[in-house]
Amino acid sequence: MVGIDSQIIFLLVIALVVAMLIVILYLGREVRHKNEQITKLLSSSSVPLDAKTEMFNFYDEKGELKLSVRPEMVYYIESADNYAVIHYLNGNKLDKIFLRNTLKNIEWRFRDRNVVRCHRSYIINLNKVQMLRRDENEMLLDFGDDRVPPIPVSKGYVENVVNLFTQDTTN
């Protein structure tokens, strides 16, 4: 009897070890797969554009290209719930596209391209801003285009926006 019990225990331990090895192998494969997905997403949607790149490429949260447009065509980007709304010139018409992504991701992606956060709900293309003005109790960015509304600058962003806007770029 004792021999049979020890054999059963031995077989159960062996089965348990084999099951654990199978689980470890499966989890390792899943981790590699997830790492590949993360690498793919990082390479397509989170890597900042090189300053030599001619286009602004906007990707959704899955890394799919949704809009590719020349930088001078983009005015501003605003937050709308879980979407970023890119306002850009399409021919002579101001157009917009809804993109499932965050302003934080877009701000990071274009951080070296003169695209600046000016409000928790807005990012602006600083190259398109024609005027910075104070209106009553708020600072506004004006694009010099009647089709584009002035964009507010919240208090937390005023110093950075004013510094960037007033920089002498001739040096």
Structure, explained:
It is a single chain. This protein is an alpha+beta fold and 171 residues long. The protein has a domain of 110 residues: Beta Barrel (OB fold (Dihydrolipoamide Acetyltransferase, E2P)). Strands 5-4-3-7-6 form a five-stranded antiparallel β-sheet. It is elongated.
Taking all residues together, what is the mean pLDDT?
A: 86
Number of DSSP E strands: 10
CATH class of the domain at 56-165, named Mainly Beta
- Please give the largest β-sheet: 5 strands, antiparallel
- Based on helices, strands and strand pairing, what is the structural class? alpha+beta
Query: Can you tell me the CATH architecture of the domain at 56-165?
Result: Beta Barrel
